[in-house]
Fold:
Amino acid sequence: MTSLWLDRPVLETDSQLAEQYDDVVVGAGLTGLVTGLLLARSGRSVAVIEAREVGVVTTGNTTGKVSLLQGTRLSRVLARQSERVARAYLEANREGHAWLLRFCDDHGVPYQRRPAVTYAADQQSLGAARDEHEAAQRLGLAVEWRDSLDVPFPHAGGTVLQEQAQLDAMDVLAALLTELRRAGGTVVSGRRVVGAPLTSPAAVDLDNGSRVLAENVVLATGVPILDRGLYFAKVEPQRSYALAFRHPSPPELLLLSARSPTRSVRDVPTNGGPLLLVGGEGHAVGRVLSTAARLDALREWTNEWFPGAEETHAWSAQDYSSHDGLPFVGALPRGRGHIYLATGYGKWGLSNGVAAALSLTKQIHGDRASWQTTISHRITRPSGALELARHNALVGAHLVGDLVRAELRTAREPAEGEGTVGRRGGLPIGESCVEGQRCSVVAVCTHLGGTLNWNDAERSWDCPLHGSRFRPDGSVLEGPATQPLRRPPGTED
Structure:
């Protein structure tokens, strides 16, 4: 599956890394490239290191909405934090939103202004939409309530915020890459960072055995690839899905339903005519029987309410939600003050990611945004603590339950496109067949030992604990894991 935005030539990067830089940024998504650009513009030597390709993990798979009205985010933050913290969160997003669109204006990156809408799909979700409307008003957003929206599908009204934006995130990354290299920065792809030793200066270790030294290291990797601080246990990995369709009259609104099953809708202007983008059906990574069924649910909904829509692209994205609804941005514990992280955007990375980059850059320069100080000193209310406990209880249940289920199954040959897990030689063994290529792996995550489940839409092994994902051959796709899956005994190369 390839997203609408990634259906283009791969962005070219540099081929060589020096032995040392002022700053090394790990991850060439939006947060990583903005951070790298800001640091390079200040005269620092910077390298951005990407394990795969620029934008291929999260940024290139978004729905491309840049909005301060973010579903039911504001009401959920207010339920778990003080109004002061909620206002700081909104201010951070306001700065990220403004910086991103200003960068687009300055560098000819196209975007479209659209009203953003959080809507109630039915009477049962009307209360959640109303709560968001009231929260947004309380925090100073100029929202307006509408009982009826110009859309073809059922709804019970929604809250509307004018003058938000939509874009192609890969257009943004292409411009950022150009500007970063023009400012003297280096961007290298295809090199996976596998560790960061506690040295002075700081350093990152690469999968080819080399080491790059730096004064500071920034982990802009979705979830930190280092376990210091245990952030993998403070965020929940979420996977969601999107489809693009040819359609003559998609709504020119940034729509998002207030409750599950989520429906996200926007238009995409193209030279060949407008496209309709429909997203949703999110779930915790590795915890559903069929990911393909999630895409089918989006197809059925679209066919019902937008008859004649012709599918062009299907894809999914992964992001991480914190227990209290706020990102974690700042110095990594036990990083000696020279390793930084950003995670927990909760699927709103286009504004949160830029805000994180602005904050990280200030911190590296010895300064701090006022809103970051407020967010950093947040105190989670009981509802947030209960959410964290729920998340980790589910992790524990999967850690034990999935292993037991694998023990009870007998390994069998998979059909084309299928992955199976069964017990063999005392180990959970994953067998897959993709395009006629059969692979066998030990289906145990190399991060913390979760038993993996097969993702039938994307043909990958996914970990239900902390969201690590692996190709059929066991190589790492994303998540906190940095090491590939082991091969079953007797099958190693």
Notes: The CA atoms of residues 194 and 482 lie 5 Å apart.
